[in-house]
Amino acid sequence: MWELQEQIECMVDQYFEDSGAQRVSAEAVGLDVRAGYVFISTEEGWIASRNTRSLDYYGGFEYISEEHKVIVGEITFYSNDHNRVADALEYYNALQEQQREEEEQQRKEDAEEQQRRDEKNGLYPDRWDDAN
Q1: What span, in angstroms and rounded, lies between the C-alpha atoms of 28 and 35?
Q2: CA 16, 23, 79, 66: dihedral to nearest 10 degrees?
């Protein structure tokens, strides 16, 4: 029996890898940080957890009905067919988009600052002369 449980855990781990699941803090999906860590797949539309007690209590997942859950071994998968899960995944996607925009803005500012330094140091003499 223990061998079967181990095989199921290996299959779930492989499924996480194949589906591109990410392990993130509950906070990254808009939940209370005390809910711990969750696995998410935005492409397949689910959140999964080994620690359902914390996720239920601190994440509000205790209100998700059985029809939106699948339990495989020690992992519980919650479908985005339920609005609590859909909202959490939407929060995660919005946060990722915001971070990408901030990183892009920072890269742009860094490039402009580097160009100003280069011009000041005479690396672009034709531009430097125009600036003076």
Answers
A1: 11
A2: 100
pLDDT 10s digits, 99-121: 999 999 999 888 888 888 887 77
Give pTM, 2 decimals: 0.76
Q: Given pLDDT bands bounded at 50, 70 and 90, which one contains residue 98? A: very high
Mean pLDDT of the chain: 89
CA distance linking residue 86 with residue 40, whole number of Å: 11
Residue type, 73: G
Q: What residue spans define the domains of the chain?
A: 1-124
CA distance 44 to 21: 9
List all residues 6 or more positions away from 8 whose beta carbon is below 8 Å from its beta carbon: 72, 73
Which 3-state string (H, E, C) describes 62-78?
A: HHCCHHHEEEECCEEEE
